[in-house]
Structure formats: structure tokens, C-alpha cells
Amino acid sequence: MSDQFIGVKPVEERHRIDAGRLEDFLKRRVEGFRGPLTIEQFKGGQSNPTYRVSAGGKRYALRRKPPGKLLPSAHAVDREFKVIQALHKVGFPVAKPYVLCEDDAVIGTAFYLMDCVEGRILWDLALPGMQKAERRDIWEELNRVIALLHGVDYKAVGLADFGKAGNYIERQVGRWTKQYLASETARIEAMDNLIAWLPKNIPATDETAIVHGDYRLDNTVFHPTEPKLLAVLDWELSTLGDPLADFAYHCMPWHIPVASSRGIGGLPLEELGIPSEREYTELYFKRTGRKRVDPSVWDYYMAYNLFRIAAILQGIAKRVLDGTASSEHAREAGSRAPAMAELGWAQVEKILKRAN
Q1: What are the residue ranges spanned by the domains of the chain?
Q2: What's the CA gap between 356 and 351, in Å, rounded?
Q3: CA 328 to CA 45: how far, in whole Å?
Q4: Contacts of 4 (CB under 8 A, 6+ apart)
Q5: Alpha-helical regions (H) of 151-242
Q6: pLDDT, tens digit, for every residue of 1-24?
Q7: CATH superfamily of this structure's domain 8-115
Q8: Does residue 48 contact residue 66 with C-beta atoms inside 8 Å?
Q9: What DSSP line would sit under 36-71, residue for residue?
């Protein structure tokens, strides 16, 4: 991965913030905050613009809703703040949150401020430049932290109202179908097939836990030199839901060809020190005490998640057309929607073949 997604850049004109208004607000609401401040924009991210705010010898991160017309329920920075606040209190690795502002008069849209966690954001799943043991340690740490998340008692941390318990997949398929149709720019046959098949074949497994919704390597910050995860980022899609669906999303890279920036399919995993999908899932089931599911159930979860990511990517493609996409690389991301849908339908075909 080149440095096109790493680090900061000058704030894009369409995402400019009134520094004076922001400074006045933060001085009133954040204990110890001292100006003057400088604002830079992080290069990565497709959805909510994220900024590095430097002030008083300290660095903060600011996440905001993008300006412009938005899809219903999308870009919920208030929900991000709520889950980060709850998890930080129990020692889960997230950035320390400071303040949520829902008054559009301050910088134009709702936002929240948190610590800027310094460390490594690793974009390339193959972890080039590392030794075999180092790669293994990174993947095992990713596994440990998602298992830890799914073990948090959501009621005890004050998140009983963060989502609905039960029927998670049914609700998610309905939600992403609506989001996809609202963003559709051209017909994708595989998406039409998935929209028809998924709601009729939902597995009868449905636990409830806090789910991240987008848990992947580049949404984490690792210690600068150790295989220790310091913070999980980007909680926009988090809710209460089926932990196995969340874990299956995290396991999608094994099903995506390495030619895609999101895949490790086809890599010499053993040679690199990266666990196989089987090893990785066994590690998760052992950590969480859950039983391994039937292969067709796992394939369903994978098909659902590939459908979901295709819907998300199609939303990015639509925002490119509308001029509201947060990243200069959004066009390339949006173009991957058809390929993800086709991979999802291929998982369904595996299920159908097994049934026959």
C-alpha cells in the first residue's frame, strides 16, 4: 500500500472547518484544552471526514458527518461516540473520547473529539517487511481483540439500548437492501440475486453482542514496535447484533483474491506466517467458547457480508456522483461493488451445490 491512504493532508475545501468557532467550543467543553489549534485531514476513510487537531502540545482526532445530502441513518457520529465512551470505561482498546457536539452551528455538521492514538495503521494484509512470527502475532492480536469485544456485557456497560436483540440478520439484510437500492447507479445481477435469496434462507443462530461492523486491520492502531493493538477505530456501523456475523465479516479477506487491496486469497499463508481461515476461526471459537457452525451456515454469513460490503461500496459510488464522498480514492472503492456482489453470490452457489 502506498502512502496515499496514510498520514494527513491539508483540509479539502469542501470539508473546511471554522477553526475559531471550533477552538471556542473546545475551550468551553474539553478540560485543559488550550489553543491555538491547527487542523489537518486524514487521508484515509470513505465515510465520515476525520481530522487531526493539534493544540497545546497535544493531538486529538475529530470525526464529523460530511456536509451535503446523506442517506437515512448513515454517518451516525453520535452512535460512534456512545459506543467508544462505553468501551473506554471498561478498558477496551479505543481512543479516549472527550466531547460530542450535535449543534450544526459550530462547524456545520455534528462531530466528536477523541484522543489521536499514535501508532501503526497497517494497510497491507500481507504485512510486508515483517518476519513470519511478527505476522502471526499481529493476526493473533486481531483475533484476541474481536473475541474480547464480543465478550463485553453490553447491558453492564450501558449499551442495552444501542440496538435491538434478535433477528439481526433479517434486519441487516433489509437495511442494506434499502441502502443499496437508494444508491443504485446501474443494475448488478448478483445483488438482485442476493436480495432475493438472503432473506429466505437466514440461519437459526442469533446471539447478541456489541458488533463493530467494520473490524479489519486498517481500522486498528498497533503499538509502534509491539504486536499490541492500542485502539479500534471507525465505529460508525457498530450496533447490537450477531457476533458470528461480525466475525465472518472480519474473515472475508480469505475469500477475496489478493489482487484486491482487501484480500489474502491465493497468498502462501503458511510461508508468510498468516493463519489459515480454519486456524483463525478455531482460535476465535476457542477464545469465545462458541461452537463451530455448519459449513453452509458459515457460507451464508460470508455471502451476507459480501452483499453488505457491496452495498456499502455502492453507497460510496453514489456519493462520488453526488459530490459528497470523503476520500479522493472513493471512486476506486465504489467501483468494487459488482465484484463483491459476485463473490457473495458465489458463496450462495456453494451452499446450493452442497444441498444438491
Answers
A1: 8-115, 132-355
A2: 9
A3: 9
A4: 43, 329
A5: 168-183, 189-197
A6: 344 456 888 888 888 899 999 999
A7: Phosphorylase Kinase; domain 1 (3.30.200.20)
A8: yes
A9: -EEEEEES--SSS-EEEEEETTEEEEEEEPPSS---
Nine-digit cell at 92? 477496551
Which residues, listed in sequence order, are joined to residue 127 by a DSSP beta bridge?
none
The three three-digit cell numbers of residue 199, written as one number? 432473506
Got the DSSP string for 124-171?
Answer: -TT-TT--HHHHHHHHHHHHHHHHHHHTS-TTTTT-TTSS-SS-HHHH
Residues 116, 60: contact at Cβ < 8 Å?
yes
**Superfamily assignment of 132-355 in CATH?**
Aminoglycoside phosphotransferase (APH), C-terminal lobe (3.90.1200.10)
Separation between Cα atoms, residue 203 and residue 211, nearest integer Å: 18
> What is the C-alpha to C-alpha distance for residues 39 and 11, in angstroms, rounded to an integer?
7
**What pLDDT is recorded for position 14?**
82
SS3 of 328, please?
coil
Residue range 85-128, pLDDT digits in tens: 999 999 999 999 999 999 999 999 999 999 999 999 998 999 99
What's the CA gap between 219 and 46, in Å, rounded? 12
Any idea which residue has 493473533 for its cell? 140
Taking the C-alpha atoms of residue 173 and residue 320, their distance in angstroms, rounded to an integer, is 24
Residue 215: Cβ within 10 Å count: 23
264 touches 257 (CB < 8 A): no
- List, in sequence order, the alpha helices (H) in the chain: 19-29, 77-89, 104-107, 132-150, 168-183, 189-197, 243-250, 269-272, 277-288, 295-322, 330-334, 337-355
CA–CA dist 66, 236 (Å, integer) = 13
| pTM recorded for the entire structure | 0.89
Question: Among residues of the chain, what percentage have pLDDT more than 70?
Answer: 93
> Beta 58-64 vs 111-115: how paired, if at all?
antiparallel
How many CA atoms are closer than 13 Å to the CA of 168, on its beta-carbon side? 26
Strand partners, 257: 265
